[in-house]
Amino acid sequence: MADTSSSLSLPFIQPSQAQKHVTHNEALRILDVVTQLAVLSDDLAAPPATPTEGDRYIVDDVATGAWATHEGDVALYENGAWQFFTPNAGWRAFVMGREALIVHDGAEWIDLDDAEVQDIEAFGLGMTSLPSTPFAAKLNAALWTGLYLGDGGNGSMITTLNKEATPDDTGFVFQQDFGTRALFGLFGSDDLRLSTSADGVSFNDGFIVDAASGVVDQPNLPRFKGISNFDNYVAADTWTKIAINQTEFNDQSSFDTATNSFIAPVAGTYFFGAALTFKQNTSDQARMGAQLVVNGTDVITGALGEITGAHVSEQTTLNIQGMVLLAAGDTVELQGRLRDFDGYFLADQTSFWGFKVG
């Protein structure tokens, strides 16, 4: 059997050993020194002139005097002499002189606040971290709070996400069962971007804030503007759907030129407007009317207008607009009417437009 323990070199009591209490007391003494280790300082290279019984130090580099050749050792002053203990990797000590916790890495003592100790390659809290995600936590709630003034802070809480260059990414990735459903941050550029995905592969930008100007773009907002590229004939005293057969823009394909109707892709509040320009047929005395109609029957409140005064063909234009709450799949169409006489609504001067506002 070995004479000492492998970790702390505690002396073992040997078979048939005389004065066993001496060996036992020595082991207790070593435990007393290195267990819950606290030292007065770790920056002295020479022993103090008047040490006190039981004082402990960690010897600094280039040791001299009674401490010579014991750099890094724990020095104990006991019974009027210095005794030394060589640390192993993992020993920890509290340095009372500077209120610091240090650890021995097998070669030297290092402050636990040093970057070398904090350079942890991976950390998992409640789960195993992956190489691609060196920090991972599995929990139901997390809180970051500012350090209050009364606790020595300034009351603020700021979290910084940093990337190296403009084409790189920095931001938040929101997932469902580890499948990405949304992104928020600077992805692929310096513009602030909010994007969603149904499958984690194809993404749709909800809004993009330009880094240089701060201008907000909503690239997938349902919106359209359509025109009629031919004169629409309208019989006298008959509400007629205006054929809007061409679009200048049509995001989300929300306007259907086949049915001349806007079709709401999602539920929400929408704003619409239209302009109709009169073109006479046999008379220029017809009176123009226009309305925006939901699902072919319900006129949007405030979106019915008429010009009853005299007008000039190809110069008089009637404008209407209105806001309405729609369900997904609801339709909105533009209707026109000419009272007393028939006529036309002029090509390229008759338009219908709209967009989602909330």
TrEMBL record:
Residues 219-358 form the C1q domain. InterPro entries: C1q_dom, DUF2793, Tumour_necrosis_fac-like_dom. This is C1q domain-containing protein. It comes from Roseobacter fucihabitans.
